[in-house]
Amino acid sequence: MLMIPGPTPVPEQVLLAMAKHPMGHRSGEFSALMAEVTENLKWLHQTQNDVLILAASGTGAMEAGIINFLSQGDRVLVGNNGKFGERWGKVARAYGLETQEITAEWGKPLNPDDFKAALEADTDKSIKAVILTHSETSTGVLNDLETINAHVKAHGQALIMVDAVTSMGACPVPVDAWGLDVVASGSQKGYMIPPGLAFVSVGPRAWAAYETANLPKFYLDLGPYRKDGAKNTTPFTPPVNLFFALQAALQMMKKEGLEAIFARHDRQRRATRAAMAALNLPLFGADDSASPAITAVMPQQVDAEQVRSVMKKRFDIALAGGQDHLKGKIFRIGHLGFVCDRDILSAVAALEATLTHLGYDQFTPGAGVNAAGQILLA
Amino acid sequence: MLMIPGPTPVPEQVLLAMAKHPMGHRSGEFSALMAEVTENLKWLHQTQNDVLILAASGTGAMEAGIINFLSQGDRVLVGNNGKFGERWGKVARAYGLETQEITAEWGKPLNPDDFKAALEADTDKSIKAVILTHSETSTGVLNDLETINAHVKAHGQALIMVDAVTSMGACPVPVDAWGLDVVASGSQKGYMIPPGLAFVSVGPRAWAAYETANLPKFYLDLGPYRKDGAKNTTPFTPPVNLFFALQAALQMMKKEGLEAIFARHDRQRRATRAAMAALNLPLFGADDSASPAITAVMPQQVDAEQVRSVMKKRFDIALAGGQDHLKGKIFRIGHLGFVCDRDILSAVAALEATLTHLGYDQFTPGAGVNAAGQILLA
Questions:
Q1: Do B63 and A26 touch (CB under 8 A)?
Q2: Stretch A338-350: mean pLDDT, rounded?
Q3: CA within 20 to 30 Å of A304's CA: A216, A318, A370, B333, which one?
Q4: By the 8 A CB rule, do B34 and B323 touch?
Q5: ipTM of the assembly?
Q6: Which CATH superfamily is domain A258-376 in?
């Protein structure tokens, strides 16, 4: 039972779709499949922009998003309040971009005012792009993309490039309504399919920048993906079986509906957080910036790694640990993608048993399950 | 029934392995799996070099092979006698390398003497790498890698970088015996698994060059893959389910044995070519440079696309067409990966029926099946 922020649980019908024998990718059948999934990806992204599909991890999509629309020496503003924000700065510098970082402590959201100040100070419009992570998987923090984006729009020149890897399919990322130029995501998250596919939506202002962008690229050059995508084909051999999985998963998502998907994630986030509070386990990060995908917990009188170990060995529930300096200090409960309300109760119940087993007595037995249950059935 | 050069047929047990629920990739179970497949990849490559696994198409692996070990302005010698050789020149130029191309007409092998001459002329050792495709999928030509490599070794400085996408697992590519510095391949070929994984083996001379190489890279930076690979983990989320498939397929390959795999491909190549000759269908390319993976045919009194269309519609056998200027002029029969001798007879029998149906009468009915059968059972 995967309660980690990816790979997330995969529905049986998606697994079975993936087990079909591959088809040739230069066939009419494959083109029909690609047309369908592309249309459904646009639905999920709430956009008419191109949504391109890469054989890569989410990092590959995000790198593609950065390197296709910028040039050597370009100045970019990078939001960094966790491992992924930090990574986008590294990518930008690896390609010779000049980065200015807006930082916040891990566990805290980026402050939109910091972006406002930096963008207003840029009177000669030298900032070419603002790059940030929407839901910071490493800490369970949701950054205020809508407000930050409004400041980018007020600047008027900079593109906005968003890592929506753990927010797409979990909370609203209305690409067209907000005018998001580049949005990257990955298959093993809200999409409910195994890792191996990544997605990047690209708007007209980004494509205009593409024309003069000069960073070197080939496999991640999005131009050919766009050109071939218009004919429902791909520049390189696509992971055909993962496309089968994507087709099945997007059909499920459409059936559930965007509003219902977002409401489910919101409900499970609130239930999980209420349970942790009832167990007197300190949440790492505040309620008003809590990710819909993952809840980070920083236990005080019990060891985070011991909790993870017992949960895994005795209840076959995989929780995520902390990364970098948070290693051993936090554990993270994923509630992203194919997670039902029962799964939340299962995880909380198993956590209660684990805590008791480890000698942690800072809660009334049943308090966590009760708190979660009340929210789930509210 | 896929008789194309990729995706190739996938065994049922590999499909079922792929349909397992994903596991967390930061788990001991995944590390054990990665240790096993890495060991088996080394067996297949006949090497002690690192063999790294990427979430990408074969092009991604080949690009990684090129950009990790070279620097801006480096001079490289690129073999180009088909679509893939042509592509590596494009990749090299996209990254600002200075390319000198050794060309041969499509359908003809690269002439090793051309490499010898160019390398001998390079008295100041300015050529940093020789880049070529072993089995040129677009034309069904196998280049004489062993002889070309000997000339590279005589040069003494240049690295050799090989696209073995349709030769790995089909004919010998003895990486250590030949001293091949960089070898790239892809999952949907001899590996018998669906597309989405790519492999690159890297030897010590290439790693030495890595230290000073300055081309920009992040997702395809092989350094982190090596570092994390040593701990049986990955820098980015791996396509877990394709790893399950890889594990099952490599176990099958080990059971069959390298010599038996190579003998099977050789036998099927010869049987296919004998059948085409018996049907008076001109082979595109000579016997002594025939790919073990694919046979290209240039029919004269019957239309190649009509042949493909009837084969697909009436017998559910997918053949590949020609690419670029060969489009409509050739068809290509794949015999790569999970192909048994019966499949060759099925394809030849269906081709005979198709040819007769299309009014082509330049053969004695049964001649193709007879010729193939004699070789298969010799």
A1: no
A2: 98
A3: A370
A4: no
A5: 0.95
A6: Aspartate Aminotransferase, domain 1 (3.90.1150.10)
